[in-house]
Amino acid sequence: QLQLAESGGGLVQVGGSLRLSCAASGSSLEYYATGWFRQISGKEREGVSCIGRRGTGVNYADSVKGRFTISRDNAKNTVYLQMDSLKPEDTATYYCATVDFCGSNVPKTRGQGTQVTVSS
Hints:
The strands form two sheets. A six-stranded mixed beta sheet has the order 2-10-9-4-5-6, with no helix packed on it. Strands 1-3-8-7 form a four-stranded antiparallel beta sheet, with no helix packed on it. The protein has strands spanning 3-7, 10-13, 18-25, 33-39, 46-51, 59-60, 68-73, 78-83, 92-99, 114-119. It is built from no helices and ten strands. By secondary structure, the protein is mostly beta strands.
């Protein structure tokens, strides 16, 4: 059974960078389109970015375009989210999840999440 585990979150200053990793176990992540989502307590989940099974079909939320880059390494069974030029409004719990297709905002199998805090 597929399991996902995020890492790479932390505290960073405005303008800084973080790289999140989503490592899969139990099955191969290459069979799934995979997205990053973020959640702020009391607010709706936001789809941040998504990448197709072969690394194509990438999309981004308008709020992160030009600052975040999603990628995947199927040999390592891992999807990444490079986050640059971070802003306080990027503060959230980030989690990765498989999706039926990029464009779907419905996470299927998801990880526990990793906290990202951007201080001003």
